[in-house]
Amino acid sequence: MFTQDWAPKVSALPEDLRAMISAARKYGLRQEGLAFERSILDAMTMWSHGMAEQEDLRKLSTESAVTRCIRLNHKASTVGEFRTLAERAKHVSHRRHRECTCPECEEMIVSQRCANPDRCYTRAEAILDTLPPKWDPRGKHPEDYEEGGGGKDARRRGGLGDF
Ligand SMILES: [Zn+2]
Ligand SMILES: [Zn+2]
């Protein structure tokens, strides 16, 4: 549903998405009936994401050593960049520890001057967790079903049923 407090944020959205939303409005479609491609979800700016749980996002983004590191050293600003950062923690040899010396952490320390990679992965993940499933590129999305020839059923599962 397009609620009033949601509307002003539209100006901050990437152009493609803005066009889709105005089309949706024009044809009276409900926002939850729209499914966006992962590339669009990834292009959204994470720090000011209008669809995130605002209170949690604000708390988790508060200026601190870890948010500064994410912003300045890892240069993460879009959802996709946060996802890449959070995914580093999935490396087989990564340990959820400050002193981890897995290849991912080593790269973070050496080339991105990160003092505590695991803390940055953890925070990036927590920030991504403020996104509702529909806006979170990490889960399954309609495009994931399309290749298997899922057809109508896939579309229904993907939440396109409102069309
Ligand atoms: Zn590691
Ligand atoms: Zn860092």
Automatic annotation (TrEMBL):
Biased composition (Basic residues): 154-163
Protein known as: Uncharacterized protein
Record's compositionally biased regions (Basic and acidic residues): 135-153
Superkingdom of this protein's organism: Eukaryota
Segments for region (Disordered): 132-163
